[in-house]
User: What shape does this take?
Amino acid sequence: MSFNSRILIVAVHDVIMAALSFEAAVALRYFTYGAPQEFLFLWEGTLIFSVVCAITFWRIGLYRGIWYYASLNDLIAIFKAATLAILIFLPVLFVLTRLEDFPRTSLIINWPLLIVMLAGPRFLYRALKDGNLQAAFQRFEMDQSRVPVLLAGAGDQADSFIREMARSGLGTYRVVGIVDDKMGRIGRDIRGVRILGSLSAINDVVARLEREGMRPQRLIIAGGSFGGEKIQDLLQRCENLGMSLARLPRLTDFDSGRDVNADATTSTVRSFEPRPVDVEDLLGRPQKVLDRDAMRELVSDRRVLVTGAGGTIGAELTRQIADFQPACLTLVDNAEYNLYRIDLEISERHPDLPRRAALADVRDPERLEDIFSSETPDLVFHAAAFKHVPLVEANAEEGVLTNVIGTRNVAEACRRNGVGAMVLISTDKAVSPSNIMGATKRIAERYCQALSAQPGGPPSETRFVTVRFGNVLGSTGSVVPLFSRQIASGGPVTVTDEAVTRFFMTTREAVELVLQACALNGSDSDARGKIYVLDMGEPVCIADLAHQMIRLAGLRPGKDIDIQFTGLRTGEKLHEELFDSDEVISATAHPSIRLASSPAMDIELLRAQIEKLGEVAKHHKTADILDLIATLVPEFRAPDATTRSADSIAVAGSE
Assistant: This one.
């Protein structure tokens, strides 16, 4: 067993407690009979008792327990150690001193006194740290027939998991060891389970457990501080060792309630069941510190409208906005089922929230005007867009009519109806676009930028806020659900190019930062006409993502599931960018949000060109569409028209 300073501290404490208990027991014995003695009256006995206790406690494993997780198991170990130490001490003292001047009845006093002096500090420490001792006094035995598992992380979740898996008899797993990078905990125990080594020593730990007949079948992540790189490393190690990788739900997701009937106990145990590691875990993006008060102030008691409310981003916007208790929430979408689904969800989550679900197409300005005039929103989030690169490439006019004309229609409706702010959801594909989807979103950015920099006079001073970010995990048409379907069907998994990379963030994080950016804009007059760009972290290699998802499914890339490289589709880049070369980048009050600024176009000239673009799109004049897009977005490089439709709907691994 490895040794560390914390074990030494506990050992010193326990030996001191043993010495004090011996002296106190002898003093109490003599005091009871009217003959009090000085401290260390029997110094030979005190020394011998301390040595016996030190050896006994070491052999029992008393020093290895972590006080923060003191439990009934520790109390039982203390009971055994105290009993054994006294039983050994008496014959040893007899051999060495013939028990001269030693009152035998003091041992009867010493036994409970020693137990109290050893257990008291441990459980007092836990009570001070944990707030109560209820969880500490739950007795259980591990069923040896359960699946042996190794935990990664020696913290609260490990303690809770070990307890819940065993205390009711309903758990599936038996924890045979723990690994953790906190060196002060290695060699110690949590509820009788040893912390065997560091994360980097997993191979040695598994080999040791295998020699002892307890080879784990699964590694379960039991902690919230594991970054993406560390999880990827654990995934590779598990694959090499023939183990599966899983993670525990976060503590905030667990069912509460511990005084239970059978049904409640079953529910609690199920809530601790490990879950597959998600792609989100592989990204390992750190939790952002958000100004939720500012976000709440932005939304609370205001009338909010969301376009594209049934889509991935729109739906998450709707959920988070509803949580901030707006005065009214209007959901706009032209997809009936998507709108029905999010409206039903909000009605169940917030039954008292005034809301309206409006079937409408952002291409229809008259319909938008009816909705805006009747709902009078204070804040509009415009998430409606066509975003799938190959489909928009093959249907350029549809991309123009929704992404450009639709954005213009929403922006003008905001101006006419006195909306306080409109937030445009943009994409990294708008930067130096190589496809029509990106180019149309760039035009939408420039229109809102021009309106913000040059409001255009009455009737309103609407703030136009543009937020740009990369791909969202699990969004409609993205690689994650595509890869999942391909893996489920036995493969192959298709990736466009071995070197292709993309930026990713979770849907929740993206929407939180969108709200944060909007809140920042309200307090920053210098942000007018600039674009908020979210920090996307490091780009992710799509081929690596495919390998990792196959491993997460318990399969082997290239053996169980093939990976095929199909070649970049028309309009796709190897690597996306977040900023144009001519944009000036500046910081904001939030470290995960930056500002990009560039000269704004003249709003009247832009309106005229967009009007022409809309007309040629209505008449399906593809060549004219490309010419006008090239005029509005000079950095756009149109793909060869002869190849645009040929591979437009090819299934491949990037959006």
